[in-house]
Amino acid sequence: MSTLKVSDLRVSVAGHEILRGVDLEVASGEVHALMGPNGSGKSTLSHALMGHPDYEVTGGSVTIDGEEILGRPTWQRAVKGLFLSMQYPIEVPGVRLEDLVAAARRARGDDPNGSLGDRIAAEARRLDVRDEFLERGVNVEFSGGEKKRLETLQLAVLDPKFAILDEIDSGLDVDALRDVSRRVEAMTAERGLGVLAITHYARLLTELHPDRVHVFLGGRVVASGGPEIADRLEETGYEGFATEQEADRPSVASAGTDDPFADPLA
Ligand code: ADP
Ligand code: MG
After folding, report:
1. What is the pTM of this model?
2. Is residue 139 assigned to a domain?
């Protein structure tokens, strides 16, 4: 049983504060959905958690089982059990998936012996990824949906403690969304994977059933609850939560600003 804990995380990008005190706690086997509109800072959160150098952490902490991971290089965070499926997966020409996964597993101290190829082939069948895709450079000339299937395949083979899925639903048709969600859910049930699923569509939550739903606005979590929060969101939109926040926090509904990075609540 492991815990990923984010406390009062503050992050700036290019000198602008984007994350304004994020609190989250995900335990093994749990699925947490983080829902927020475009530009609210969801990808900033995913990049900051994984240690992207453009994202400057100005406060707070992120721990796995009590151990601080902020300040550590990305590879060490991965070794500690964190995995990020990027919103826009990058292409890696000349590196096949098997080479990538084998290197990651070696860095973790596993011995990726001959069985890795079999494991990848089995996952590829499960996720409906054709063999020819495995022979190309990772993600090279893949469609958006194919990239997301391949990200899920990497997740399954790497078997981390926690997966951050940044809009894994974008670019997926209904069938692919179901395949990917089934695979992720099986990992939570069978291997105790903890999931932070970032999305701005409630559609994902009809396939990937969350234990907790967090509404994310202006760089912070403004409401948390069970799946009923997603239903409320369907009715009121993010607007409804923004209005509620204004009422709760008169201090943020302050003077106008021409700062394009400003809190949309302000
Ligand atoms: P979301 O994923 O919720 O759509 P992002 O985290 O991508 O939101 O972006 C939040 C804000 O931070 C946006 O205003 C965006 O322009 C800004 N931002 C994110 N990453 C960068 C970056 N690398 N350089 C400059 N601005 C960035
Ligand atoms: Mg994003």
Report:
1. 0.90
2. yes
For residue 262, being part of any structural domain is answered with no
Residue 189 in domain = yes
* Ligand 1 site, CB within 6 A: 13-14, 18, 36, 38-44, 54, 261
pLDDT digits (tens, 9 = 90+) for 141-181: 998 889 999 999 999 999 999 999 999 998 888 889 999 99
Q: How far is CA 3 from CA 117, 171, 193, in A?
A: 31, 30, 11
Q: How far is the CA of 159 from the centre of ligand 1 (A)?
A: 29
Percent of the chain at pLDDT exceeding 70: 91
Domain count, the chain: 1
The residue segments making up the domain with residue 41 are: 3-257
Query: Is 103 part of any domain?
Result: yes
Residue nearest atom 27 in ligand 1 by C-alpha distance: 13
Is the pLDDT assigned to residue 259 strictly greater than 80? Answer: no
CATH of the domain at 158: 3.40.50.300
42 Cα to the center of ligand 2, angstroms: 5
**pLDDT recorded at residue 171:** 84
Ligand 1 atom with minimal separation from the 41 CA: 6
Q: Are 82 and 64 in contact (CB under 8 A)?
A: yes
Which residues are within 8 A (CB) of 25 and not within 5 positions of it... i.e. 6 or more apart?
Answer: 3, 4, 5, 6
